[in-house]
Every structure is written in structure tokens, then in C-alpha cells.
Specification:
Layout (H helix, E strand, L loop, with lengths): L1 H59 L15 E7 L9 H18 L3 E7 L1 H9 L6 E3 L8 H16 L9 E11 L2 E10 L24 H78 L1
């Protein structure tokens, strides 16, 4: 009986230690998520402005540009998958990987080969375990992305898009990330970046008429310079939304884990008290039985 009490005490001690870790991680995620949300909001004006500029160039001029023209028979696609570097974030990475698998399956059904580009160690582990290769991997800073990483990714993807498929290039580029809606809602999301699908972040109003521009030397050269920046801004915004979503998922997961730890401690304490009571009852029974035996002898 004493050994059983010691086991419960050890379980209570270890669970209490884990609870402290869960609480610390929850507090860290809570403190960082506010800044992550602010960064998402701060990235939208630039993304909206450059989107409007691209929309103006594309809609006001009949330009046969490689970045805005649909290929006749696309045969290869690039897919950028954004996961997390660390776990303890609930189903965050599992959900985005499930969404990626759906996209990969659809592209395969369309007869397209796929080149995967992976962000985050969770996606790396997932594909490595299954023996599925990827073209390039980026790890680190998934919960605090920087613009330099977005520029690097954008350059790699645009270069692949501008390369002929016969030389290993791609006809289209998709991004799989987690869209941050609110602290309690984050949705795995797929966006096709290239060929360009111009999408306004906010609904246009009567005052949001696209401006008229004059270009020097011409609109095509403006697109050459503008579209890589557009792609970079879209990728960076997706990275920021993924980071905010990761932190929100980690906050909820750690709170749930802490609550479960509290419940376990209560259960173990009750079991330990029951075992202690049973031990005391057994000792009393033995004492009474011994006393009765002495009195009857």
C-alpha cells in the first residue's frame, strides 16, 4: 500500500511540473499573439496598395505577360506548404498538411507533376517519414517570420515560374497556409499565386476606383518590376497569418493541457488519499485483531 502511495505522489509531482511548463508556454503564446496580429494588420495596407497597382496595370492594358497569361497545357505546378517548426500547437500543422494533401491529390488528378517547397520542420518530418521529396526547405522563425525570408522564397518561386518546364520550371504556383480569422478561428487555405489571380483583400466601394497611370517606358516593364514585389508581399502576408494562427493554436492547446493536468492532479490526489485511508484502516484492523487475540489468550 505504501508503494502505491509513493507512485501517486510521483505522478502528482511530475504532472505538476508539466502543468508549470504548459502554463509558461500558454503565457508566452498569449504575450506574442498580440504582436503577431498587429503585424498581420500592418502588412495589409502595403499588400492592398500593390494589389491595386497590379490590378490597374493588368486591367487597363491588354498585355501578353508571362506572369498574367494562362498556359495552354500546364504540366507542372509548384506548391509552397507553410507549417510550424515546433509542436504543442494542437492540430495546426496537421490541418495545413491535410489541406496540402488535398491540393496535391487534385493537381495529380489534373495530370500535373508537383514540385513541393516546404516551410517548417513539421512538414519536413511529415514528408521525410513518407519518403516524399521536396525541392527546397526553409526552417526557423515560423512563429516570427521576417521579410527577408519572404523575399528569398518569392525569388525562388518566381525563378521556377520563369524557367521553361522542359528545364525544370513550373506553370503555376500555389501556396498552402493557415488564414488567421480570429483568436478562435483559423482556416487552412490555398491560394494560387501564379499565373496571377489579382484578389483584393477588401471589398471595393464606389470610391475605390482603380487609378489611371501613365507608364514610362511601358506597362510591361512596370509589370516586370512590380509583380515580384507583389508575390513577395503575398507570401509575407501568408507567413504572418500562419504565425498568428500557430500562436493562437498553441495558446489554446497549452490551456487545454494545463486544464487536463489540473484534473489529473485532482484524480491522483483522490486516489492517493483513498490509498492512504485504506492503509490506515488496514493498520487499525490489524491492531484490533491483535488486541482481541491477546485478550482471548
Amino acid at each position: 500500500m505504501g508503494a502505491q502511495i509513493r507512485v501517486y505522489r510521483q505522478k502528482i509531482a511530475s504532472t505538476s511540473s508539466m502543468k508549470k511548463i504548459f502554463k509558461a508556454m500558454e503565457l508566452i503564446a498569449t504575450s506574442r499573439i498580440t504582436k503577431a496580429r498587429e503585424r498581420v494588420s500592418a502588412s495589409l495596407p502595403y499588400a492592398n496598395a500593390i494589389t491595386r497597382a497590379v490590378s490597374a496595370v493588368s486591367s487597363q492594358h491588354d498585355i501578353d505577360h508571362v506572369l498574367t497569361t494562362e498556359p495552354e497545357n500546364p504540366t507542372r505546378a509548384a506548391v509552397l506548404i507553410m507549417s510550424s517548426d515546433r509542436g504543442l500547437a494542437g492540430a495546426y500543422s496537421a490541418n495545413v498538411l491535410r489541406k496540402a494533401e488535398q491540393l496535391l491529390s487534385r493537381l495529380g488528378e489534373e495530370g500535373k507533376d508537383v514540385d513541393m517547397y516546404v516551410v517548417g520542420r513539421k512538414a519536413q518530418t511529415y514528408f521525410d517519414f513518407r519518403g516524399r521529396g521536396y525541392k527546397k526547405l526553409w526552417t526557423g522563425q515560423t512563429d516570427a517570420p521576417v521579410a527577408e525570408r519572404a523575399a528569398e522564397i518569392g525569388e525562388v518561386l518566381v525563378d521556377a515560374f520563369l524557367t521553361d518546364t522542359a528545364d525544370g520550371g513550373v506553370d503555376e504556383i500555389h501556396v498552402v497556409f493557415t488564414e488567421f480569422v480570429s483568436l478562435v478561428k483559423q482556416n487552412p487555405h490555398v491560394v494560387r499565386l501564379l499565373p496571377l489571380e489579382v484578389v483584393e483583400e477588401e471589398a471595393a466601394t464606389a470610391e475605390d476606383v482603380l487609378p489611371l497611370y501613365e507608364y514610362e517606358p511601358d506597362a510591361e516593364e512596370v509589370l516586370d518590376a512590380l509583380l515580384p514585389k507583389y508575390i513577395e508581399s503575398r507570401i509575407f502576408n501568408a507567413m504572418l497569418q500562419s504565425a498568428a494562427s500557430e500562436l493562437a493554436n498553441r495558446q489554446r492547446a497549452m490551456k487545454s493541457a494545463g486544464d487536463n493536468a489540473t484534473s489529473l492532479i485532482k484524480d491522483y490526489t483522490l486516489l492517493m488519499n483513498n490509498a492512504r485511508q485504506a492503509e490506515i484502516t488496514q493498520e487499525l484492523t490489524e491492531l484490533i485483531a491483535g488486541a482481541d487475540a491477546l485478550n482471548n489468550s
